[in-house]
Design goal:
The structure holds 2 protein chains of 2 kinds.
Chain A (H helix, E strand, L loop, with lengths): L1 E11 L4 E10 L2 E6 L7 E5 L4 E4 L1 E6 L12 H10 L2 E6 L10 H14 L3 E6 L13 H7 L3 E3 L8 H14 L3 E3 L4 H4 L4 E2 L2 H6 L3 E2 L1 H18 L3 E3 L5 H12 L4 E5 L1 H5 L21 H12 L5 E2 L8 H4 L16 H11 L5 H8 L1 H6 L15 E11 L18 E11 L2 E5 H11 L1
Parallel strand pairs in A: 1-4, 1-5, 6-7, 7-8, 8-9, 9-10, 10-13, 11-12, 13-14, 14-15
Antiparallel strand pairs in A: 1-2, 2-3, 5-16, 16-17, 17-18
Helix pairs in contact in A: 2-3, 4-7, 7-8, 8-10
Chain B lengths: L20 H19 L12 E6 L5 H12 L3 E6 L11 H9 L5 E6 L4 H8 L4 E7 L5 H15 L6 E5 L6 H12 L3 E5 L15 E3 L2 H5 L4 E4 L15 H8 L3 H4 L7 E3 L12 H4 L7 H26 L1
Helix pairs in contact in B: 1-5, 1-11, 2-11, 5-6, 5-11
Classes of the chains: A alpha/beta, B alpha/beta.
């Protein structure tokens, strides 16, 4: 069935389009975006009053399968993705076993094809077993379908291994995604090192822990003329390093997570384990630097670092809880509130950070509504408000720092390859039935 | 300051940070009354008769655990001491499951010592009808220690307002220092901290204290010098090179104490490392040292806290 979306305000940052238009999707691909399209034999979706954008792409998702299906599965994680407006997610390699060989990549893709709700692009490991000792078979991983490599969850501590990974991946045309953290400087830290860690008596993770490695990797990217992508960048020094390196012609890109945009380390005073993630919530000065980087174009993408954990795992003392929070289902509304409603950026720039920005970073299809592009579209109601509740997450997990917040700006429909994968009217009706 | 309020606002005592000066004064005034109970031949009042207090100690403790138990007994409460060693905590039972089971036996109050910050608050939020007293949560707070320190200072010096208190040692990992800073600054005392930068947490000056790295400078003009225990296991692990060097730069000796005001009080929350942070001839000199008075006063202060929380709680229900 072909789809005709009518009357939406279409925002397509890939070609600076922002106008009321219709979108015709034929055979799973964008056929036309134009004023008043006439078409026969189509299902029509009246999107008057809604925003239509290229489907969102998340560069940083932990789907937990294989191995940790009690936290999330490919099925539930991608279901959460479409509920958040994402039509594609990049699945991180730190599963059990890790995605450090072709067989795991193929398993992830096969399961995504069987039970997934959106596109899944696997991210392979940099090193075998994520141990930081030997390179994984990077060309094999690329051939199997990996779009990038990362030992995310840990840094690539050995500078020589990082150099070789960058060089090798430049041949394969994929970036190395860097989780930047100096374990020695962290010294068992559980939150940002600053006034609040001092106040609360908690071990701190200094900003320098991230910044020293970002500085190193920017230098290595220059040395190798390869593309390094900084994952979940969280500090002022790191954003400065990326900004300066770009001016210097270094191929460096970066992503920022919604929780780092929205929250500061003062929130940890509640001791809620849903405020524990790595990198940690930083101080207000760092948060402001991220906002500046988003506004001036230094930041390429907003990525969720969706990190589901089971209730039991988080229902412990702050020190003992695992790092990570979920983000797929709240990312857009949180960022719309903190960035657009707060007048840091305009709406088209926000859409860019969710679609064409991430597509460019990993060289992915999608992120655009050009004729011939993937038929991936997200529809948003900017006026709709909803309260974030534990029980309304479709993710298996509910470890969100935004539970209890009322957010404005809601994804109402997600279309993947011309098929409606999420429709809030259907979802709400189901919820009413359950009651 | 003298107490103008007659009850505490919270059902729990989780820290000093959230107390107002009137509440601190109330606890200290109440403790004065209870100090006399311990000096009698029959050391018991019926204030908490029929109430069950569980002392949940998930980390080693001598003074705090014994002091709470004595305070509870002198108030006629039923007490139960639980320590993690020998319990199912060793089989991996979580804090919440452990506490849920103890709570199922319907205590009125729980005193908890635990190595993780925020753990007392976790229980306080989980059990709306039980008073939780923080007996030390990691490096976060140890409110009854700060209260007994303040009680001792006030008793000896007649006031807290304007008193110069110097605290020396492992500031970074000390819960005692955090509670003391909150209490002393709320009561308008002047706090100076001294430690090598490696043991000084970042941005602590924002709490309204003076930070110095010279012991002599810190002691100059002090009314009170409070020494903190150095955790011996930190030696050589990047906090300081050796115990010998630590003693030479930050150890309290009779010689160094001369820079303080006449009549200076030397305090220590215990346990002491003699010859590391403090010389024995200082620790044992009754002209300076009030270290054992602190312990005596601890019982009275804990009686006051138990009484104020237990009494408020029983009238509620």
């Amino acid at each position: 069935m072909n789809l005709l979306i009518t009357g939406a305000r279409v925002i397509d940052p890939s070609r600076e389009l922002d106008a009321t238009m219709d979108i015709l999707i034929e055979d799973g691909a964008i056929a036309r975006v134009d004023k008043k399209i006439k078409a026969t034999d189509v299902e029509t979706i009246d999107a008057t009053g809604l925003i239509a954008t290229p489907g969102f792409i998340d560069l940083h998702t932990h789907l937990r399968e294989p191995g940790q299906e009690h936290k999330e599965t490919i099925a539930t994680g991608t279901r959460a993705a479409v509920a958040g407006g994402y039509t594609a997610v990049c699945a991180m390699a730190n599963t059990v076993p890790p995605n450090d060989e072709r067989a795991v990549t193929e398993m992830v893709l096969a399961e995504a094809a069987r039970n997934g709700w959106c596109r899944v692009y696997p991210v392979g490991a940099v090193s075998k077993g994520l141990l930081g000792e030997e390179l994984a078979e990077l060309a094999e991983l690329r051939a199997a379908g990996c779009v990038a490599v990362s030992d995310d969850g840990k840094p690539v501590w050995n500078a020589q291994l990082m150099r070789r990974a960058l060089e090798y991946c430049s041949m394969l045309g994929m970036p190395v995604v860097a989780h930047e953290e100096d374990a020695n400087l962290n010294e068992g830290g559980v939150m940002h090192e600053g006034f609040y860690s001092t106040l609360l008596g908690m071990r701190g993770i200094p900003a320098a822990s991230e910044e020293t490695l970002v500085a190193r990797d920017v230098i290595l990217a220059k040395l190798t003329n390869a593309h390094v992508h900084i994952a979940h960048l969280s500090t002022a020094g790191a954003i400065d390093a990326v900004r300066r390196a770009r001016l210097d012609g270094v191929k460096v890109t970066c992503e920022v997570a919604p929780h780092h945009i929205a929250l500061g380390d003062d929130a940890v005073q509640s001791f809620s384990t849903n405020l524990k993630m790595n990198p940690p919530l930083r101080s207000e000065a760092h948060r402001q630097a991220l906002l500046a980087g988003i506004a001036d174009g230094t930041v390429d993408a907003i990525a969720t670092d969706h990190a589901p954990h089971h209730f039991d795992e988080k229902n412990v003392e702050f020190d003992l809880a695992p790092f990570g929070v979920i983000g797929l289902e709240t990312a857009f509304a949180v960022c719309y509130d903190r960035l657009v409603r707060a007048k840091i950026i305009e709406l088209p720039r926000l859409i860019e950070l969710f679609s064409s920005g991430p597509a460019r970073v990993f060289n992915l299809p999608g992120g655009t509504l050009h004729a011939g592009a993937l038929g991936d579209v997200t529809l948003i109601d900017l006026e709709a408000r909803h309260e974030v509740k534990r029980e309304t997450f479709v993710s298996k997990a509910a470890n969100s720092p935004f539970v209890g917040e009322t957010l404005q700006g809601r994804v109402v429909m997600t279309i993947v390859g011309g098929a409606v994968k999420h429709d809030i009217r259907v979802a709400d009706a189901k919820k009413r039935k359950r009651k | 300051m003298r107490a103008s309020s007659t009850s505490l606002r919270s059902k729990d005592l989780l820290g000093i940070e959230t107390l107002i000066p009137e509440e601190i004064a109330l606890i200290l005034d109440t403790a004065e009354g209870f100090k006399e109970v311990s000096e009698r031949h029959v050391k018991k009042v019926p204030a908490l008769r029929g109430q069950l207090v569980i002392n949940l100690f998930m980390e080693a403790s001598t003074r705090t655990r014994v002091s709470f138990e004595i305070a509870e007994k002198r108030l006629s409460a039923d007490t139960l001491n639980f320590s993690s060693s020998g319990s199912s905590v060793e089989k991996g039972e979580t804090l919440i499951d452990t506490a849920d089971n103890l709570v199922a036996m319907q205590p009125n109050m729980i005193v908890m010592r635990h190595k993780h910050p925020g753990s007392a608050r976790m229980l306080a939020e989980r059990y709306p009808n039980i008073s939780i007293i923080n007996g030390g949560d990691g490096s976060h707070e140890h409110p009854t220690q700060a209260l007994l320190d303040a009680f001792t200072m006030r008793e000896r010096l007649g006031r807290l307002n304007g008193v110069n208190v110097t605290i020396v040692g492992d500031i970074k990992y000390s819960r005692v220092v955090r509670s003391n800073i909150h209490l002393l600054t709320k009561m308008n005392a002047n706090v100076t901290l001294a430690a090598p930068p490696t043991l000084m947490p970042v941005e602590i000056d924002k709490l309204g204290v003076r930070v110095v790295h010279s012991l002599d400078e810190a002691i100059e003009g002090a009314d009170v010098v409070m020494m903190l225990r150095i955790q011996l296991e930190r030696q050589g692990k990047l906090s300081f090179p050796s115990l010998r060097e630590y003693y030479n730069t930050f150890g309290l000796t009779r010689e160094r104490l001369r820079r303080a005001k006449k009549g200076v009080l030397v305090m220590h929350p215990g346990p002491m490392n003699r010859g590391v942070e403090i010389a024995s001839d200082v620790a044992d000199d009754p002209n300076y040292s009030v270290i054992l008075e602190q312990v005596t006063n601890g019982v009275a202060v804990r009686m006051a806290v138990l009484y104020l929380l237990g009494g408020a709680h029983s009238t509620e229900s």
